[in-house]
Design brief:
There is one protein chain. By secondary structure, this protein is α+β, with helices and mostly antiparallel strands. Helices cover about 25% and strands about 35% of the residues. This is ATP-grasp domain-containing protein. Pfam families: ATPgrasp_YheCD (PF14398). InterPro entries: YheC/D.
């Protein structure tokens, strides 16, 4: 396979001819070729080749060819030669959910999607779409492209070479329609990452058989019995009781037992933190039953960890991980999250605050901050590799919530396949936010087999 970069131009001629500069023919190792098959995404069409004398690497597509495979725009793009098939691309699709707004068709995710499309247009044909935009009869998508003025424009294109899944909700991600969509794309061998939201209990189950990484996971049990909850509080003094499929800290309870004082429960209710005291274990359990149902299904109990603190407030860390263009896990961004007073979690929406990891660790460890941070990065990469090795679908991005305890041990509390991007709003982490977008695009190039020549 040979891969090169070229400029694509459109011609109004009706015949099915690809006019190719001699320099481009040479780069594609097609010198002397009389015909080729042109491909874009999952579409292809035969074309006659006519060399032209023009300096540089140029491809002129007649209107018949352009319309047949639905090439969305002229300009700079990659080409690769696959045994006489010449593929333009890559054609990258970003899957999300939509609204009726023409200016914000992807709701609160519109800004991020625009950023992806803007950066990606320099190296690919990239568009965003919703499940409703797919025409399965024709195997086409009515996608949202970004114009040169920064506005969305709709264009119909073939099914793409690779899809980045950013569906925003668990309800949508696990619906029968989306399950069917994934199955159809799998049958067509279109790489699709990230497959779906993680379930907390599934991740813990994946890791529990691997002693190398399970030591970083707090003791956790799914659907705990009352005896299990009581035992956890006796062993660990406090524990977290949280929904297996939750996010953003919703529905989490911090349970603690103080001998001779009773049982305490902290949780978030609407916009305030709640602290309740119970004289007996059974009275605390009755409260949980009244809030969550008699069976306590869909919840897990997790060992509480005494984290490092600043101003008597616990600190944990969001590690934003990506696969790079060489299919390796790397740490791209880290945010240190300090909990709000009386809050169960460090989520910013619950009163937490955001710092850089250096700001947080310098205050706790001083000169040793860099060493502690590097150790945590190594753990994050080890965890990402372990999850990928045990996961049956493609992963390209993971968000870890990691903690460091007062003995400097690193712990993993959460793993998210579609991590939020709030840490990149910190002024000191904006460069990392841009790097995150670049890693997404580079991994799309890798999965679609469009990689820079120096990487081949």
């Amino acid at each position: 396979m040979s891969l090169t970069h070229c400029n694509v131009h459109f011609s109004q001629q009706p015949d099915k001819v690809a006019y190719i500069s001699t320099a481009l023919l040479k780069s594609l190792k097609l010198s002397g070729a009389k015909s080729i098959r042109l491909r874009l995404g999952k579409d292809q069409i035969p074309a006659t080749v006519k060399p032209i004398q023009k300096a540089g690497r140029h491809l002129y597509l007649t209107s018949s060819l352009r319309n047949a495979i639905r090439v969305p725009k002229s300009g700079s793009i990659y080409l690769r030669n696959l045994d006489g098939d010449v593929q333009l691309g890559p054609l990258i699709g970003v899957l999300s959910d939509g609204t009726s707004s023409s200016t914000r068709p992807f709701g609160s995710r519109t800004g991020f999607i625009k950023q992806l499309l803007k950066e990606g247009s320099n190296k690919s044909y990239i568009f965003a779409f919703t499940p409703r935009d797919i025409n399965w009869q024709n195997d086409t998508i009515n996608g949202y492209f970004l114009s040169s003025s920064g506005d969305f424009t709709r264009k119909i294109v073939p099914l793409p070479d690779v899809i980045y899944n950013r569906l925003p909700s668990r309800r949508a991600d696990f619906s029968p329609a989306i399950n069917q969509l994934r199955e159809r794309l799998s049958r067509k061998r279109i790489p699709f990452f990230n497959w779906s939201f993680f379930n907390k209990s599934d991740i813990y189950h994946l890791l529990e058989s691997n002693p190398e990484v399970n030591r970083y996971v707090p003791e956790s049990y799914m659907n705990p019995s009352s005896e299990r909850i009581r035992g956890m509080l006796e062993r660990h003094q406090f524990a977290y009781y949280k929904p297996s499929g939750g996010s953003l800290g919703k529905g989490i309870y911090r349970l603690s037992h103080v001998p001779k004082q009773g049982y305490f429960v902290r949780y978030r209710k609407k916009n305030s933190n709640v602290l309740l005291r119970f004289t007996s274990f059974n009275s605390m359990l009755r409260m949980l039953h009244s809030n969550q149902g008699q069976t306590l299904k869909g919840y897990l109990i997790q060992q509480g960890i005494q984290l490092i603190e600043i101003d008597n407030c616990p600190i944990d860390f969001r590690f934003h991980m990506h696969k790079n263009g060489n299919n390796q896990w790397v740490v791209v961004g880290i945010g240190a999250k300090k909990s709000g007073r009386g809050s169960v979690t460090t989520h910013i929406k619950n009163g937490g605050s955001l710092m850089t990891p250096e700001q947080a660790l310098d205050r706790v460890f001083g000169d040793r901050a860099g060493e502690v941070l590097q150790r945590a990065k190594n753990v994050a990469i080890t965890l990402a590799e372990a999850i990928e090795n045990h996961h049956q679908h493609l992963l390209g991005e993971i968000g870890f919530d990691l903690g460091i305890d007062q003995d400097e041990k690193v712990w993993m509390f959460e793993a998210n396949s579609k991590p939020g991007r709030s840490i990149f709003q910190h002024p000191s982490l904006r460069a990392e936010g841009k790097a995150s977008v670049e890693h997404i695009l580079d991994h799309c190039l890798y999965l679609s087999k469009f990689r820079r020549k120096e990487e081949l």
